[in-house]
Design goal:
The complex is a heterodimer of chains A (about 375) and B (about 270). Chain A contains 13 helices and 14 strands. By secondary structure, chain A is of the alpha/beta class. Helices cover about 75% and strands about 0% of the residues of chain B. The N terminus of chain B is likely disordered. The chains are: A alpha/beta (about 375), B mainly alpha (about 270). At the A-B interface, helix 3, helix 4, strand 6, helix 5 and helix 6 of A face helix 1, helix 5 and helix 11 of B.
Chain lengths: ~375, ~270
């Protein structure tokens, strides 16, 4: 069984990549390695970590992390006493409105931002105390697609960043071929990234993050700029690659469909705090109210503002004079809503009940607490 | 379990510093060959300014300039090396910030210092190539002959511009904190003219400044034919101390700036 024992708590091994003798034991993403994620989870669960013998070492462990920017009355608390653990091999979505603290949290985990308080451990390695060992296991695509060299070819980027990440590029050449094949870049391997479409550049960025041997990967808006088909392909491949290689992936995105399709678990941030942390199914099951979808004409912005004040989970989308309204209601709310619309002479074209989705949960949880809900 | 690198069998094996150096130098070589316009442009501009200096100076100063042409060529060669190394390292850091690649170099298991130094070395090698061309053109245009002992020239000028690399790191670090300051810091390269031509023989304390002492030794090597082993040990030691001192100080400034940028949350922001 291919495992990585000795890696997670052996900080000295990572302090010098040349001395990373365990590297040859890393899990390869061979097509038949679908069960290895479970194997590795159980192997890591049996390791002795900071939690003691037999305790599973989380891939990411954040404890009491806080970060404020500025001072005095203008100070902004970007991350407020966040503690969270992410199990090795899981795919976790990080959601939140703009300004919720997602990027600061990710950058703090990666050591790109120094937190005021708290600690971060990656596979038991303290990022601040032994950053080199921690960095042998983590890579990230931050804030869009621009994290590689556009004047190098696709393959050159993958080889370069594999080497920078502490992996001999020759040893992962076949992995690179498969990765590029899966992302539909196999015909572009020798093309300079600058000559690719935006969607392809995005894929190269993700591929370069997966090119080395990092097993904790942070992806910020991985499907930004992709068309529907590319986004769907990317989601499927991301999930597949993560499972095959036993990667721990944290996906920060505004695209609820991506998070719902790819992630095992969702963290929702608002106002610098984590306001929800659960499996996607559990979050959806926990919302037992009905959702009404109303398509109507004659809903003006003033009425929308009133509805937002009076009802929960209001999401509005206006197109060609018709407004699509989603509202979370119980029975009393339903009567009140219809009465309110009638009072304003709104013509209802269509009215349905719909199953709540992640967006509804997100809107409910983040409404009025930082950033702006939709 | 086998710990041998599983080359070709798709098992990731660790890369040592040799692999890292290969990757960094290869990238630099690829960009140099694939996009020669930057390098050619730099050579053309350097030669053009030398032409203005040489022909314009001859019109104004006549024989006086011709008599001192050897010193001017050596000084100009060192200046082009210095400007190349300084702007390459400071602009490179600024560019990495814009490209979003800086974080990935900070987040390397090798640590940022070796990666940054290797990138600096790559820039220095590239600068030697372009400045070598400029030197050849200057010698051809002026019909001047200099002692071209390659080992001595590379060692002395290499150590001289190592101090400038330190200034480049410091400037790059300041650019991390104050993004728009990069263009202003480029003006510092004109100060290198003063350092290259500093009268370090007459004013000994000037030798502790970057370039000044190295410039004097390079003049002796290229004009008088002094070989590296013929220099007094004290002179060579001072050259090394100045090089290491400024490189170390520059890197400390860079590290401080990086740490402050992380504290302020502006590392990589552009």
């Amino acid at each position: 069984m291919a495992t990585r024992e000795g890696r997670s708590t052996d900080a000295t091994a990572g302090s010098d990549p040349a001395a990373g003798e365990d590297g040859a034991d890393r899990v390869a993403d061979t097509p038949d390695s679908g069960d290895r994620r479970r194997d590795r989870r159980s192997a890591e669960a049996s390791e002795s970590g900071p939690g003691g013998a037999g305790a599973a070492v989380p891939a990411v462990a954040v404890s009491g992390l806080s970060k404020r920017f500025g001072s005095g009355p203008d100070a902004v608390t970007a991350v407020d006493d966040v503690s969270v653990e992410i199990e090795a091999g899981s795919i976790v979505g990080l959601l939140g409105p703009n300004g919720a603290g997602k990027t600061t949290l990710i950058k703090s985990i990666l050591g790109m931002v120094l937190p005021d308080e708290g600690s971060v451990r990656l596979h038991g390695i303290d990022v601040r105390e032994d950053s080199r060992a921690a960095y042998a296991r983590v890579d990230a695509m931050l804030e869009g697609a621009r994290n590689d060299y556009w004047r190098l070819t696709v393959r050159e980027n993958l080889r370069y960043f594999a080497a920078i990440g502490g992996v001999d590029p020759d040893s992962v050449a076949e992995r690179h071929d498969r990765l590029l094949d899966r992302f539909g870049l196999d015909s572009k391997v020798d093309t300079a990234v600058r000559n690719l479409s935006r969607g392809m550049k995005q894929k190269v960025s993700i591929a370069s993050v997966l090119a080395g041997d990092a097993d904790v990967v942070f992806l910020d808006e991985p499907t930004l700029g992709l068309d529907v088909e590319s986004s769907r392909t990317l989601r499927a491949e991301l999930r597949r690659i993560a499972e095959e290689r036993g990667l721990t992936v944290v996906v920060s995105s505004h695209d609820m469909d991506v998070v719902e399709a790819v992630c095992d678990r969702v963290l929702i941030m608002s106002g610098g705090r984590i306001v929800a942390d659960d499996a996607v199914e559990a979050l959806l099951a926990g919302d037992d109210r009905h959702r009404l979808r109303v398509v109507a004409r004659g809903i003006d912005p003033g009425l929308v503002a009133d509805l937002r004040r009076e009802f929960d989970g209001v999401a509005v989308d206006t197109e060609a004079g018709r407004t699509r309204l989603r509202v979370a209601v119980d029975t009393d709310d339903l009567y009140a809503l219809v009465a309110r619309l009638r009072e304003h002479d709104v013509t209802i074209d269509r009215l349905d009940t719909v199953e709540p989705d992640l967006e509804d949960v997100f809107v409910d949880l983040t409404r009025g607490t930082g950033g702006h809900s939709r | 379990m086998s710990r041998e690198p599983r080359r070709g069998s798709d098992g990731p094996s660790p890369a040592g510093h040799y692999r890292l150096a290969r990757a960094v130098l290869y990238r630099e070589a690829v960009l140099f060959v694939r996009y020669p316009a930057n390098a050619i442009g730099g050579v053309v501009i350097a030669v053009f300014f030398f032409g203005v200096l040489f022909y314009g100076g001859r019109m104004v100063a006549g024989q006086a300039l011709t008599d001192s042409i050897e010193g001017i060529i050596v000084g100009y060669f060192l200046w082009t090396l210095s400007v190349g190394a300084y702007s390459a390292i400071s602009n490179d850091i600024g560019s990495e910030v814009q490209w979003g690649t800086l974080e990935r170099h900070v987040m390397t298991p090798f640590g940022f210092a070796p990666v940054a130094l290797l990138k600096g070395l790559a820039k220095v090698i590239r600068t030697f190539l372009t400045s070598g061309v400029v030197l050849g053109v200057m010698l051809a245009v002026t019909g001047t002959a200099l002692e071209l002992n390659v080992l001595t020239i590379v060692l002395v000028s290499g150590l001289s511009i190592t101090s400038v690399l330190g200034l480049g790191f410091a400037a790059g670090g300041i650019t991390l904190l104050y993004k728009r300051i990069g263009n202003w810091l480029n003006l510092l390269q004109f100060g290198f003219v003063v350092l290259v031509s500093a009268p370090s023989l007459d004013v000994p304390w000037l030798r502790v400044l970057p370039l000044a002492h190295g410039s004097g030794l390079l003049q002796r090597a290229m004009v008088n034919g002094t070989r590296i082993w013929e220099f007094p040990v004290a002179d060579l030691a001072l050259l090394v101390v100045v090089a290491v001192g400024y490189l170390g100080a520059g890197y400390l400034v860079f590290q401080y700036a990086t740490r402050r940028a992380r504290r302020l949350g502006v590392l990589g922001d552009y």
